[in-house]
Amino acid sequence: MSVAGRRVRTDDVEGRRARAEAVLAAAGGLIERWGFDKTTVEDVARAAGIAKGTVYLHWKTRDELFVAVLRRERVLMLASVREGLAAEPGPRALFRHLAVALMGRPLLRAVLLNDLGVLGRLAERMRSRTEWRPSFSDLLALLRDHGAVDGARGELGQVTLVNAAYLGVLTTVSLLPEQARLTDDEQADLIADMVVSTLGLGEGDDPAALAAATAAYFESAFEVATDKLAEAMGLVPGNRGEGS
Known about the structure:
Layout: H1 3-34, H2 41-48, H3 52-58, H4 62-87, H5 91-103, H6 106-112, H7 116-119, H8 123-127, H9 136-145, H10 154-175, H11 184-199, H12 207-232
Helix pairs in contact: 1-2, 1-4, 2-3, 4-5, 4-12, 5-11, 9-10, 10-11
């Protein structure tokens, strides 16, 4: 292929990427505001400033579009955690960064809390899939390997406790009147403190090694999430849609 040919192909891919990003951003905002059931492809196209048919060039169904929206949200969440860990490493900080990032992505928070107002008819299907939830099991295994938490409660017990910290705080705050709610930072601190106290979380045998391993874990997770998003956007070969 000539240099000119490669440039045209690259420009075409980047144009499709930019268009898909605009659609996903518009769809995410509408679903967050109105919920999945009330958000139509026409609404998304109008908000993105494109024709309805253009949306279908990327996604065959509204369900596929929503999966792509969630995958974009996951990439943004993981990017936020990576940045946080680079500035402030450590086991406690890890769970705090996760809480801050999750609260900054309302659609992922809706999946975690099984928010029917946002998810609508997709709630049951989303609840049965682990892709959209933080992988506490993998993180806790990493922490155990580096001596930051012992195995006294067992793997399932530890995962349950961490989930209880996130679900408990986020659910409780959502049920309180506005004037009685903690700020996002206060919620993140409370979640992190609960994880530390319930698991006896420490700095591990070698804090530097643990920090490096944690950074590598999130780098790998970010790369996988980015690849899945590219597939969902139709930019690389692969199965698109919820089943991919």
